Amino acid sequence: MVTYEDRVRQLEAEGCTTSDAQSVADVEAMDNKIAASAEAQAHAAVYAKWKLSRDARLADRSAS
Predict the structure, then answer these.
(1) pLDDT of residue 6
(2) Which of 15, 19, 36, 39 has its CA 20 to 30 A from that of 4?
(3) What local confidence, expressed as pLDDT, does residue 47 receive?
(4) Which residue from 20, 28, 40 is spatially nearest to 4, judged by alpha carbons?
(5) pTM for this predicted structure
(6) Which conformational region is residue 55 in: left (phi greater than 0), alpha (psi within -120 to 50 degrees), or beta?
(7) Beta-carbon neighbour count of residue 25 at 10 Å?
(8) Where do the domains of the chain lie?
């Protein structure tokens, strides 16, 4: 995984000013956090659906 500082250096090597490189690296870091958060939310939704289904089955068994 590339660190923030390394990414800034890469972008500077490609011709970006330090300020522009930092801005790009900031946006990339934010995009990664948003993507990770969205993925986590999707997994949480699947888990919640599974857990509700399992809890309903257990409740049905207990009622019998």
Answers:
(1) 96
(2) 39
(3) 87
(4) 28
(5) 0.62
(6) alpha
(7) 21
(8) 4-63
Question: Residue written as tokens 């089955």?
Answer: 57
What tokens appear for 34 in the block? 């948003």
- What is the C-alpha R_g of the chain? 22
For residue 62, CA distances in Å to 51, 57, 59 come to: 16, 9, 5
Cα torsion through 14, 17, 20, 26, rounded to 10 = 70
pLDDT tens for the 64 residues of the chain, in order = 799 999 999 999 999 999 999 999 999 999 989 889 988 898 988 888 999 999 999 999 888 7
